[in-house]
Amino acid sequence: MKILVLESSTTSVKAMVYDTDSQQTQVISQKHTKTNADADAGTHDAKTVYEDLISLGRQLTKTESIDAIALSTTWHSLLLGDGTKEPISPVYLWSNLVAASLCQQLRQDQEYVKNYQERTGCIVNASYPYFKLKAMQPIKQDIHIMDQGAYLNWKFTQAYVTSESMASGSGLYNIESRDYDMQLLDSLEVCKEQLPKIVKNNRVFSLSQTAANALHIEPGIPVMLANPDGGLNQIGADATNHEVMTLSVGTSGALRISTQQAYGAKKGLWSYRSPRTWLLGTATSGACNCVDWFKDVFCEHRYSYAELEAKIEIEHALQSSPIFLPFLFGERCPGWNMMRRGGFENLHHSHDVGACYYSVLEGVLFNLYQGYERLVEVVGEPKVIELSGGILHSPIWQQMCADIFGHPMVINTTKDMSMVGAARWAYECIGEVKPVNTPTYTDALAQKMLQPNLNRHQQYQRRYQQYQIYYSTTQ
User: Among 22, 174, 249, 360, which residue has the fewest nearby CB atoms (within 10 Å)?
Assistant: First the structure.
């Protein structure tokens, strides 16, 4: 069987053909451009994203016979549509700050924060569609309230639906009733019919004639509804049990672990549905985007990444480098203050480019480590931490990560992991046997284990204490 996976992420659109027999993949992708995205505003254009996905998909269907389609996108987007469900607003991404000042006010009420988090598993933060809607009130009764995923579902199947996993990241979903929270809808003065119907994550629909014509394939083949790339990543990584924690360091950062129950956003952690289980996790706004900022803006493109890494002297850096707070794009975990800003602390005239670059890499990992400490408090130490994302392009950064966490890291070099997860999930949901030859952690532990340097871990712990001081005394 050959499955066409179409994914819209924060930074790009991608298409993949996944062969379930050989588990071979073909992938093409393109970065979002100003035509379909405004990175500064944290928005996408829904119709252009759909058209770009169709265009990429059509390039692959020219040479491949497609048996099913799987859709993947990001959590936390918001899109308003008219009576025909066509967009009348941009897609507001998690990074959009339209609700930032509102959330700052709401977070002053600790009882409100506690109640909201216990009911939804989400955080009082501008990332979530609920607070964006609250900031946009009033919402007219004839407007459809959806996200990029629901819009793709509509365009590909003509069904106005969303998966439970996608809904759980909206801030409008009640983790007890596993449906929209009526009290929250009432607070927005909107009705349930304005939102896509929540269906089980394994529901499969049929490809519409219009989408089939656009892709130049036959209508009626199974379509796996849009699911969040964060949840699909767990399936692609074969990390759907509670012993495995994934650590993704890409444009932004995330730590996730599968759980058998929902948690009410304990200790600033979110709790969502994944396609298979519940997920408990933490997210950070600053990761590779901070590294890119340092190279492209701070250093004005004067150095390559390799040249910057060559300037790092780890032992010297551990003794005297500045501390970097990676909140250039706002803060998610642990403080969830999207208005927060970052920068260098304890910066001295003797600090050179190498010392500052080292500090950026370190600061990103310290912020992720803050979330890790909270996860461990709730669920305990994982047996396995799996590392993936752009960090894998840097051996120095990988080793820093293992040393800071003081924990062995399984290096997962699977490319396009969320898309692989989407294909595998679709394959299961249309009634087929789960693919064989899926990599196991026995294989991974034997072949791709990165061990921490425990002496350096102690040095990093001292640096981390400095980071914590600057974190707690700045806003």
Answer: 22
Alpha helix segments (H runs only) across 168-228: 182-188, 209-215
Residues 302 and 364 in one domain: yes
Residue 404 φ/ψ, nearest 5 degrees: -65, -45
Inform me whether the pLDDT recorded for 434 exceeds 70.
Answer: no
Whether the Cβ atoms of residue 229 and residue 9 lie closer than 8 Å to each other = yes
Length of the chain: 475
| CATH number for the domain harbouring residue 362 | 3.30.420.40
Report d(CA 222, CA 431) in Å as an integer: 11
The reply to whether 467 falls in a domain is yes
DSSP 48-111: HHHHHHHHHHHHHHTT----EEEEEE-TT-BEEE-TTS-BSSPEEPTT--TTHHHHHHHTT-HH
Q: What is the DSSP letter of 272?
A: E
Number of structural domains (the chain) is: 2
State which residues form the domain around 206.
2-231
Q: Are residues 286 and 357 located together in one domain of the fold? A: yes
| Nearest alpha-carbon partner for 444 in 384, 400, 369, 382 | 384
Identify the sign of the CA torsion 181, 182, 183, 186: positive
Whether residues 310 and 192 share a domain: the answer is no
pTM across the whole model: 0.91
Q: Between the CA of residue 352 and those of 129, 307, 348, 437, 474, what are the distances in Å?
A: 42, 13, 9, 48, 24
Q: Does any domain span residue 133?
A: yes
* Tens-digit pLDDT profile for residues 246-255: 999 998 999 9
Instruction: Give the residue from 381, 383, 437, 433 showing the smallest Cα distance to 414.
Output: 437
Task: Work out the pLDDT band at 182, boundaries 50, 70, 90.
Answer: very high
The pLDDT-based confidence of 195 (bands split at 50, 70, 90) is very high
